[in-house]
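re: the backbone from monday

yeah here it is again, tokenized this time
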């Protein structure tokens, strides 16, 4: 079973591995920063979409298990647990998708990839 104690070092390692790329992003026109932000948003969107599909599959599997349970109290309880986790997964990933869209809007990332600099009025 994967625990947070195993996952955190992986994220820390990935962050350390990406540090040179982020440091090299300091160019006058900001082209590298645009590319990095676009890539991060694209990968995050893809991962969220895949996890959303997986959550829907889990929900469907729970419904199938509930139908197959046919009144067996233990099987019905397990199937309801799977359905609940499927619904929780869907809610979490819909929220993350909304957060990604908010971040894209906030930073001005368009579908063409143009990054608008902040303006002072």
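seq for it, each position gets an aa:
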């Amino acid at each position: 079973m994967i625990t947070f104690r195993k996952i955190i070092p992986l994220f820390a390692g990935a962050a350390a591995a990406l540090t040179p790329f982020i440091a090299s992003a300091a160019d006058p026109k900001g082209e590298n920063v645009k590319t990095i932000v676009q890539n991060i948003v694209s990968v995050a969107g893809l991962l969220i979409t895949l996890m959303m599909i997986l959550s829907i599959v889990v929900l469907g599997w729970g419904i199938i298990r509930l139908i197959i349970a046919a009144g067996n109290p233990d099987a019905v309880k397990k199937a309801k647990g799977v359905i609940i986790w499927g619904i929780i997964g869907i809610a979490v990933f819909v929220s993350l998708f909304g957060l990604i869209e908010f971040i894209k809007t906030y930073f001005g990332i368009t579908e063409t990839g143009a990054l608008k600099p902040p303006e002072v009025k």
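The chain is about 80% helix and 0% strand. Residues 31-69 form the longest helix (39 residues).
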